[in-house]
């Protein structure tokens, strides 16, 4: 078994102000042969997590297990972990072949075995024609492939990638993202991939772990995290465009539950769990593609069926439009200043300044407590 288990990891760095918590009671189980993505904003502890696993940082408290082995007293070189950094860190005076072979040479691997492994990995990554060249003559994508190849040529148990595509242009990032996923499937290796790009996380990971301020907020499949976010932060961070979130209160009148906010009262579908949150401050969230938009020119920009429970929000003004080809993102604002983002059909014909009526699919709303943790009311 080559899974990874982190138990109650704490890590604090000294600062002029006294100290900064990088990881707080952080626990995570990465399954064998899984591609798990750590995602979160800059400074949330993603890189520190990788460095703790690799042995480059020593946690203040907690345990790290690799393949069911406690590696607290195991040096980085003996953990059988390969790491690829955001900055490629290639040796500029060495050829691509020697960059790929360096780790094997340091382990006194026989020359014929080195040659065979390097050729095998270079062919896999489509850089076999570059073996005689030096890094300064390579493009960004080629350098990235060399950095990845240098890690996998060792056949490590665990593969750690720290924002490896951050320095590439958009098109090349897309190509390399596909390549990373293909390689992980082909090699059947346990891989942890760090990114701050939630779209990259959603498309790459078997599971994604969302981090914030050194804490693990939620870990699950991309679909689980997207459809049932554990807290308000996850709801607002995962998804493009992000979830609409509005503050208000949960009230009950004549046995009916309502969300009372700046747009008035919104009738909710009955749910017994609401009883314990009555008269409390909450947030209501809904994904942009579950907001239905209608205008005089286009009666329904989002078609609905007769069984969908609908609530009308009222009239909004179009303040921005983002046509993306396959879809159109429409930004709107009400007379009371409430902002809403709608993911409409690509063919929508609304224009700036248009007045439209918005309706919500009530079966798709999310409620979150207003306290600091913002946990989901489910």
Please provide a brief summary of the model:
Helices cover 22% and strands 35% of the residues. The chain is α+β, with helices and mostly antiparallel strands and 378 residues long. Strands 6-7-8-3-9-10 form a 6-stranded mixed β-sheet, with helices on both faces. A 6-stranded antiparallel β-sheet has the order 13-12-11-14-20-21. A 5-stranded antiparallel β-sheet has the order 15-19-16-17-18, with no helix packed on it.
Spatial strand arrangement across the major sheet:
6-7-8-3-9-10
Gross geometry: elongated
CATH superfamily of the largest domain: P-loop containing nucleotide triphosphate hydrolases
Q: How many discrete structural domains? A: 2
Largest sheet: 6 strands, mixed
Q: Indicate the mean pLDDT.
A: 89
Number of helices: 8
- Write down the CATH class of the largest domain: Alpha Beta
How does this model look, in words?
The two termini are 35 Å apart. The chain folds into 2 domains: 4-237, P-loop containing nucleotide triphosphate hydrolases (Rossmann fold, 3-Layer(aba) Sandwich); 244-377, Nucleic acid-binding proteins (OB fold (Dihydrolipoamide Acetyltransferase, E2P)), CATH 2.40.50. The radius of gyration is 25 Å and the shape is elongated. It has helices at 46-54, 96-106, 111-124, 140-152, 170-187, 198-204, 222-227, 232-237; strands at 4-13, 20-30, 35-39, 61-66, 69-70, 81-84, 158-162, 190-195, 207-212, 215-220, 244-253, 256-261, 264-267, 281-286, 291-294, 310-323, 327-333, 339-345, 355-361, 366-369, 376-377. The mean pLDDT is 89. The chain is of the alpha+beta class. The protein is built from 8 helices and 21 strands.
